[in-house]
Amino acid sequence: MRREQDDMLRRGIGMTSQRTRERLIQRLYEEGISNTRVLEAIRSTPRHLFVDEALAHRAYEDTALPIGNNQTISQPYMVARMSELLLEAGPLDKVMEIGTGSGYQTAILSQLVERVFSVERIKVLQDRAKERLVELNLRNVVFRWGDGWEGWPALAPYNGIIVTAVATDVPQALLDQLAPGGRLVIPVGSGEVQQLMLIIREEQGFSRRVLGAVRFVPLLNGPLA
Length: 225
Ligand code: SAH
Known about the structure:
This protein has seven helices and nine strands. By secondary structure, it is an alpha/beta fold. The protein has a domain at 64-213: Rossmann fold. Helix 2 (18-30) runs antiparallel to helix 3 (36-44). The structure holds S-adenosyl-L-homocysteine (SAH). S-adenosyl-L-homocysteine (SAH) is lined by residues 67, 71-74, 98-99, 101-102, 104-105, 119-122, 125, 147-149, 164-165, 217, 219-220. Its main location: cytoplasm. Catalyzes the methyl esterification of L-isoaspartyl residues in peptides and proteins that result from spontaneous decomposition of normal L-aspartyl and L-asparaginyl residues. It plays a role in the repair and/or degradation of damaged proteins.
């Protein structure tokens, strides 16, 4: 009995139960997330597999959690909100993500768009994220180890770009890699002062919408082995 309990605790069973997950979906809905495809993707994605086992029992709280290397898995609300903003004008074919991290946002996106191109600068995080996506049989994702400030020019243009770390300025390369009508969702600022922005490539130039204050880890420079 004792051993069974230990085992259950270790695997986070109970705390990762269907009911706990439903509570998170309900909460996101109440906070204004209305895209049912987004809510469905979050419902069916086991977030506890994207964090350390020791934190699995907190995986369905609406909060960012540490994933090592000074990085965090994004808060579910932010994942939902950014995905919803990307999809607001209709379905998307090619989406580039900057900041793979745990691969959680990647996994959500892969269920919502045709193809995901995900760039991460920290090799060990990327390797772990890759394994998780294979394990979940999410196969429409390709990964690049590199610097997100440069995007992934060889495969551009993209209909959507999502950045999951805060940039001091909007990277020019990302604007250049947006298809006509393409949408870029990105936190901009530094330290305590960060705003989520939606930038759309119009026929002439870009339109910008500021969507409110957010809190992200910084978009750094250069790849890291
Ligand atoms: N969406 C991820 C969030 C991870 S945190 C998740 O939910 O797990 C932000 C990630 O951006 C980190 O993994 C960090 O290493 C990465 N990052 C920071 N600067 C980067 C850059 N210049 N290029 C690519 N990735 C970067």
